[in-house]
Amino acid sequence: MIRERLLQILVEPKISEKAARAADENRQYVFKVLSDATKPEIKAAVEELFSVKVEDVTVLNVPAKTRHFRGNAGIRQGWKKAYVKLETGFELDFMVGD
Asked: What is the three-state SS of the chain?
């Protein structure tokens, strides 16, 4: 796969209590990814960027939501979420600073 494409696949890691629980219990890490990304692309991107081995990738689409602000209706855009399970012995740490 093209390296430039792999660098664009992962938009951001999703840090939340649910994501922390998944990381502790199942070695799964949650990422916001491009809406047209496929499972093999996500796996290759994580392995390339973090130098880890990926066991499994689960993808789900978060639907758009209607929101109201001062009487005006708007739509919050939908996005794609990826749960990436790492092989035993590998770990990601997003909180490490310089």
From this structure: CCHHHHHHHEEEECCCHHHHHHHHHHCEEEEEECCCCCHHHHHHHHHHHHCCCEEEEEEEEECCEEEEECCEEEEECCEEEEEEEECCCCCCCCCCCC
- Name the pLDDT band for 95 (thresholds 50, 70, 90): low
| CA nearest to 57, candidates 43, 70, 46 | 43
Q: Which domains does the chain have, with CATH numbers?
A: 3-86 (3.30.70.330)
Model pTM score: 0.87
φ and ψ of 49, to 5 deg = -75, -35
**Sorting pLDDT into bands at 50, 70 and 90, what band is 92?**
confident
